[in-house]
Amino acid sequence: MAKGNPYGHEDSCACEGCQTWKDVQLGIAALAELKRTKAASAVPTTLPVACNCGQVLNGTEKFCPGCGKPTNFAKQCKSCGSKVSANARFCTLCGKPLS
Q1: Which domain holds residue 1?
Q2: How many domains does the chain divide into?
Q3: pTM score, whole prediction
Q4: Sign of CA pseudo-dihedral 21, 24, 26, 29
């Protein structure tokens, strides 16, 4: 019997349920490895946004290079460091509350 196999099948079982279970276990192991190597920190901390004029901003500008209007990136998420709009209550990158 496979260790932790919810179906009680042998490790070599190739049924759809066991294959899905193995895929899930491999995915969990891969995510754990990403956390251990801190590869998750390679994710960008800002997502591109667009000004009302259509100019794409990366979240670091104080003024729009397309129209000159001030941007509203006044807050920074304490969890992931992403810059968010002044009126945001939750981070748009990691979803954590900004309070």
Answers
A1: 1-42
A2: 2
A3: 0.34
A4: negative
User: Is there a single domain that holds both residue 37 and residue 54?
Assistant: no
Whole-angstrom distance, CA of residue 46 vs CA of residue 76: 10
Helix, strand or coil, per DSSP, at residue 84: strand
Distance separating alpha carbons of residues 76 and 60, to the nearest angstrom? 11
pLDDT tens-place string over residues 22-75 = 777 777 777 777 777 765 455 555 556 778 888 888 777 778 888 998 877 767
- Tell whether 62 and 84 lie within a shared domain: yes
Contact yes or no for 91/84 (Cβ under 8 A) = yes
- Alpha-carbon radius of gyration of the chain: 22
CA angle 7, 13, 15 (to 5 degrees): 75
